[in-house]
């Protein structure tokens, strides 16, 4: 049995923390979207949050996500793929509303093809691997211009901004320089003439550091544990592959 009232209470708590963080940063809380990362949790948990009016859900594995989409297909939800996507699996990813892990021009092309064939519109966030970071996925800053150039000619997919998965720190303040740096990357792309309409979103911040991310300009925060509780399996680590 799912404890729906406990889930609702945690959702309310996260929402009010988002509002307070927005207030500190003098930002409109409506400019920040909460993506509830439901990976490893059953569709019943998704439905319980949907009943409380929540719409945006994140998953890191395509197959697991497709099953939850099927189980909740009558609900008006928006699905975000936050985990790494191999180009050869782009076709299956066409059911997502947003893909946060785009890291090559080839993947942009594959997603455009898949979204057009499925007659769907997908928002793309380009995952950035900041220099010195030990993560495996994401594009380096010098690769970003080509990725945005590839997106410029697309019609079924639309580049919407940047995504960051920084190294893990116990202290949320440890993430702050990375969040700030992602904003810096965004500003340099704008200065180089990348259209502002492709850079409106900054997807950054997770359970332990989303308030810091909001202070640094996040427009999409991806929160799992703080909403759903701890995930049992080691395979659910944020850097997980498909
Ligand atoms: C799992 C995951 C999250 C959520 O992490 P929590 O610490 O549980 O909030 C956010 N982003 C990505 C990319 C993830 O894989």
Spell out the key features of this protein.
about 35% helix; TIM Barrel; about 240 residues; about 15% strand; binds pyridoxal-5'-phosphate; 8 strands; alpha/beta; single chain; eight-stranded parallel β-sheet
Please characterize this protein's 3D structure.
This protein has 242 residues and is an alpha/beta fold. It has one domain: Alanine racemase (TIM Barrel, Alpha-Beta Barrel), CATH 3.20.20. 36% of the residues lie in helices and 16% in strands. The protein has eight helices and eight strands. It has helices at 4-24, 43-51, 62-71, 105-117, 144-152, 176-191, 210-215, 225-228; strands spanning 33-37, 56-59, 78-81, 98-102, 122-127, 157-163, 201-203, 220-223. It has an eight-stranded parallel beta sheet with strand order 7-6-5-4-3-2-1-8. Helix 6 (176-191) links the parallel strand 6 and strand 7. The longest helix is centred in the first third of the chain and has 21 residues, at 4-24. The protein starts with a helix and ends in a 14-residue tail after the last helix. The model has no long low-confidence stretch (mean pLDDT 94).
